[in-house]
Amino acid sequence: YIADLHIHSLFSRATSKACNLAGFFAWARVKGIQVVGTGDFTHPGWFARLKDELVPAEPGFFRLKDEDVPPALPLITPASSPVRFVLTAEISSIYRRGGRVRKVHNILYAPDFDSVARLNRRLAAIGSIESDGRPILGLDSRDLLEIMLEECPDGFLVPAHIWTPWFSLFGSKSGFDAIEDCFGDLTGHVFALETGLSSDPAMNRLVSALDRFTLISNSDCHSPAKLGREANLFSAGFDYFSMREAIRNPGKG
Questions:
Q1: Separation between Cα atoms, residue 112 and residue 62, nearest integer Å
Q2: What are the CA-CA distances from residue 59 to residues 9, 87, 168, 217, 240 (Å)?
Q3: Can you tell me the distance from the alpha carbon of 130 to that of 124, in angstroms, rounded to the nearest whole number?
């Protein structure tokens, strides 16, 4: 199956008003994508929609409560393959470390609404999660990972588009030179990195410091029509936990 695990809702800045669950469902069917990240689960308005419009399917996956959605393209009848959603969010962490301002984006993944609710409560106490679907928080990436591990033990964190100059782990303008410098004692809990749209996987694989990490890439789309411009192929079991383990260990799918 094909999974696009980083998208944004209409509650994020500079996104299309069509970035709703029905829109993503319709375009996923056109493009043959079976698993789509929800994006933006930290935003109260979007989280309310997720709880209202999604129902549990396979473990950790959700489906639309009402799948009677108009086709994305007129005169096109896409195959009726299943489309599932997985709970995701991107956090923009802007903070000082080592005498420098760091700006790092990280993606969070979770299998259930309860753990997301706990996580959101912790983050809301740190900064505003209401102004943008991708909230900007003065929260160290290492501390964000610690909060996620405490509130959502079955979740995982993936540093986003790691080579983007201004907003990423390895960003030349505001990032770090090593993963360990960013996550410190919790580095062992990071097992995957998102390469981003402008990044070449084969070139990434020439960097020996990345050898132990799985590389993933996603659309990071701001409109449903851009879904799947990059995506991931899985041969693992069709559920959140199997997908997570395949990302942790690509030999499992």
A1: 9
A2: 23, 12, 31, 23, 6
A3: 9
Q: Is 251 exposed, middle or buried (0-12, 13-18, 19+ CB in 10 A)?
A: exposed
Look at residues 51, 44, 190, 220 and name the one whose alpha carbon lies nearest to residue 123: 44
Distance CA(32)–CA(37), nearest Å, equals 15
Which pLDDT belongs to residue 79? 75
> What are the residue ranges of helices labelled H in the chain?
21-31, 44-53, 113-124, 141-151, 179-183, 201-204, 240-248
In this structure, what token pair is assigned to residue 217?
């890439």
Is pLDDT of 106 > 80?
yes
Q: Summarize the confidence of residues 205-211 as an average pLDDT.
A: 95
196 pLDDT more than 80:
yes
Neighbours of 142 (CB within 10 A): 18
Asked if 5 contacts 35 with a C-beta cutoff of 8 angstroms, the reply is yes
